[in-house]
Design goal:
By secondary structure, the chain is mostly beta strands. It contains no helices and seven strands. The mean pLDDT is 87.
Length: 105
């Protein structure tokens, strides 16, 4: 599995019939320090992710193991939306940063 960030969508009105009904998103791969690698891929969205989401995606034959992509001609699939990542006990990413509570009511 790889980490990436959804940066856009791909629309293809003429395509292989086995791709009909699949949502295609542009994902920019992230490295271990949360920087974009510059590599952008097109992935089938199996989990209803959206623009700006940090996601887990699979490549190669693993991309054809989800219900949405089984036996379809795909090389990449988004299979999870990341909520939080911790490294050595420290939170390095959090989708929903905790809100600061107002002072006394």
């Amino acid at each position: 599995m790889l980490l990436g960030k959804v940066v856009g969508t791909v629309v293809a009105t003429r395509k292989e019939p086995e791709l009909t009904g699949l949502r295609l998103l542009l994902v920019r791969e992230l490295d271990g320090s949360w920087q974009a690698t510059g590599k952008m891929i097109v992935a089938v969205d199996a989990v209803q992710s959206g623009d700006g989401d940090v996601v887990l995606f699979a490549a190669g034959s693993s991309a054809r193991q989800t219900v949405a992509t089984k036996d379809r001609p795909v090389d990449h699939v988004i299979m999870a939306i990341v909520d939080e990542v911790s490294v050595e006990g420290a939170t390095v990413y959090q989708k929903y940063a905790p809100r600061e509570l107002p002072g006394e009511w």
